[in-house]
Amino acid sequence: MVHRFEGSFTQQEPIPEAAVDAAVTVLNHGRLHRYNLAEDEVGEASLLERDFAAFTGARYVLAMTSGGHALAAALRAHDVRPGDAVLTNAFTLAPVPGAIAGVGARVVFVETTESLTIDFAHLEEMAEMSGARVLMLSHMRGHQPDMDRVMRIAEGRGIEVIEDCAHTMGGSWRGVVSGRHGASACYSTQTYKHINSGEGGLLATDDPEVAARATLLSGSYMLYERHGAGPGTDVFEAIRDFTPNLSGRMDNLRAAILRPQLALLPGRVRRWADLHDAMEDVLRDVPHLSLIDRHPGLVRVGSSFQFRLPDHEANEIGTFVDRCAHRGVELKWFGAARAHGFTSTYRHWAYAHAPDLSQTDQVMAGLLDMRLPLTFSEEDCEIIARIIREEAASQRS
User: Contact 348/338 with Cβ under 8 angstroms?
Assistant: First the structure.
């Protein structure tokens, strides 16, 4: 028996030296604000937008203060107004319904499957019932659905898709980069995501009017010609005086930290896959424990790990989580009665109407989640998985 795991579930890798050097350069010249530039200088924020556009294949990219701010800007840029219905999957995190509620729109939750993806039959039902013209699709914890089917449903009903790619930057569906199916996509660079600036976000789209509105909303001070991956100045003319400044710009310091990390992202995705596989190899045949199915066409970014205890009572799962914690393994439980830390469900967000989603409730009741930081080794993951395996066995012995 492995007695205890001694590693940290919140310790990220150090910022790479190239990013530190780039940040020091910005600090030394002092021009942190994205529009505070020397003559003929292209700022780090604009360079990041160019780099990310090249990385994803998007025509336009806007660097913002956070992924949540990007989500809210995307909704406004797609002309979502107070009272409008916006579809979203019930398995997500608070910034997604928060962005919808924050623009005064009405959150319409869609059921979640055991694969932790949106339920297509319920999506069609709720689209018909609500009349929504926007789906904010959350790729929660890296679990992308069959995107071809999502887009067939959306296009058949005239629904625009905004993809929440906070957990899928670097992933893909059947060779298509995550975020390139919908009309717009939002990404996060918060510390626990896939490139780390502490906080930050990116909005990507091929639609010049959406890009222009989002840029104005971010607070461009009419300096939109200084953006590295934005539309032409003519696109802004009709809307520049009617779009409020909501001040959500990314600064040059954070952009400088991010740019060198973007080149490292494909290698990080491969390393996360190895950690994820090491966990699954140990837990694959544990009685009363279910792993999450993955479609073979999905390249998932395995920065977190989920599994289910589907036939356990709430008190059993609470005891299981406590026993694992006593042995150094930090698990988060989506079935808890109240929101805790970074874990919550659609029933915890009182600002959004909570319908009766019995299928989602059943999935969430036994769903457990943990971070897999790249400071872990495959051997660490094997130790963690053995502890989980032993505690699962002891509960049913």
Answer: yes
